[in-house]
Amino acid sequence: MKKTDWKLIKDIFFSFLKIGPVTFGGGYAMIPLIEREVVLKKRWITVQEATEIFAIAQSVPGAIAINSAIFVGYRLAGFKGAVAAMFGVLLPTFWIVILLSVLYLYVQDNHYIEAAFVGIRAAVVAIIAYAAYKVGLTSIYDKTTWLVAVTSVIVLYVLQVHPVFMIVGGILTGLIAVYIKKYFGIVTSLEKESEQID
């Protein structure tokens, strides 16, 4: 492998190493940080590519944060890039969880710690809502996608259907919608126009 390729591998590793420790609230809270690092700062991928990666990452088994890191790393530098991204995002999180697990045994009844977690949980809701908004900018762009999104939220809230069934339902709905539009001669746009994203 060329020297420049190893530099890219190192950059991928340290970029995700930097993202891991500052992410509270799980994988969905990591989406804005990944986007800021790899799209806005490094310009490794576009907003559209990032949205596609996040959609795939949450549709397959595993944590969305790790899946997203692996997909981004693989797109940038193949298998070695995927491994670098995976270890970059995993290592700090692993050690932080170990450390917090030990410390929690000693501070679990501390009122200040409990108050801090109340604030963290509230802030995480905002971070996840922002991540949903950013994904929605390129995923929801016409009547069909709006209908699928609104229906999915209602079904999830009312019937509490397992997310796997929602993903399968989304796949089937997309295929059926495209087939029906094609049958009636309607041109189907499979993504939002780039000028509408900004």
Q: Please, could you describe this protein's structure?
A:
By secondary structure, this protein is mostly helical. Helix 3 crosses helix 4. It is globular. The two termini are 37 Å apart. 20% of the residues are buried. The C terminus is likely disordered.
SSE blueprint:
Elements: H1 3-19, H2 27-41, H3 47-57, H4 64-107, H5 111-139, H6 143-159, H7 163-183, H8 194-197
Helix pairs in contact: 1-4, 2-4, 2-5, 3-4, 3-5, 6-7
Quick take:
The protein is an all-alpha fold and 198 residues long. The chain has helices at residues 3-19, 27-41, 47-57, 64-107, 111-139, 143-159, 163-183, 194-197. The model is unreliable at 194-198 (pLDDT under 50).
Task: Look at the structure and give the mean pLDDT.
Answer: 80
Question: How is the biggest beta sheet arranged?
Answer: none
Could you name the ranges where pLDDT drops below 50 across 5 or more consecutive residues? 194-198
* Strand-residue proportion: under 5%
Name the structural class: mainly alpha
Number of strands: 0
Distance between the termini: 37 Å
Oligomer: single chain
Q: C-alpha Rg, in Å?
A: 19 Å
Helical residue percent?
over 70%
Shape: globular
Write the H/E string, N to C.
Answer: HHHHHHHH
Number of helical stretches of at least 4 residues: 8
